[in-house]
Amino acid sequence: MRILVIDRSADVRTLLNMLLTAHGHEVFEAIGDNGGGTARTSANAPEFVLIDLRLVLESGMQFQHESALAHVPTIAYTLLNDKGLLRRAHQAGLSVCLPLDPDTILAVISRVVKPV
């Protein structure tokens, strides 16, 4: 599966890339610049998007509704267990993966993206 990872942190992008690639996924990385990364990488036709929740909320963007990738299953992730942050995410129409650990990420991807 082609997965787009959007995060400001090169370390997080690298870790997610290593995890997902080891499990047979093709990963495209975008530097999280409040959504600009999605426009540059949508040409790769990702089948799934993982995005840092802070990027979406800081930009005020309702990612799943306003993005060029609105049709692609998207999960926001966070390292913070902040109830206010999670409430804002749900108000923005986002599904959130918490905690951000390998087993949870892989389980969420397999649950959200059903085989055809």
Account of the protein in words:
With 116 residues, the protein is α/β, with parallel strands linked by helices. The chain has one domain: Rossmann fold (3-Layer(aba) Sandwich). It contains six helices and five strands; from the N terminus they run βαβαβααβαβα. Strands 2-1-3-4-5 form a five-stranded parallel β-sheet, with helices on both faces. Helix 1 links the parallel strand 1 and strand 2. The longest helix is centred in the first third of the chain and has 13 residues. The radius of gyration is 13 Å and the shape is globular. The termini are close together. The model has no long low-confidence stretch (mean pLDDT 77).
Write a compact overview of the structure shown.
With 116 residues, the chain is an alpha/beta fold.
Features:
single chain, 116 residues, alpha/beta, Rossmann fold, 5-stranded parallel β-sheet, 43% helix, globular
Radius of gyration: 13 Å
CATH class type: Alpha Beta
For the biggest sheet, the summary is: 5 strands, parallel
Instruction: Give the total of domains.
Output: 1
Give helix % range.
Answer: 40-55%
CATH fold-level topology: Rossmann fold
Termini Cα gap = 12 Å
**Uncertain residue segments:** none
Strand content: 15-25%
Compute the number of strand runs: 5
Order of helices and strands: EHEHEHHEHEH
Q: CATH superfamily, called what? A: Response regulator
Indicate the topology.
Layout: E1 2-7, H1 10-22, E2 26-31, H2 36-41, E3 48-52, H3 53-59, H4 63-66, E4 74-77, H5 83-91, E5 95-97, H6 102-112
Parallel strand pairs: 1-2, 1-3, 3-4, 4-5
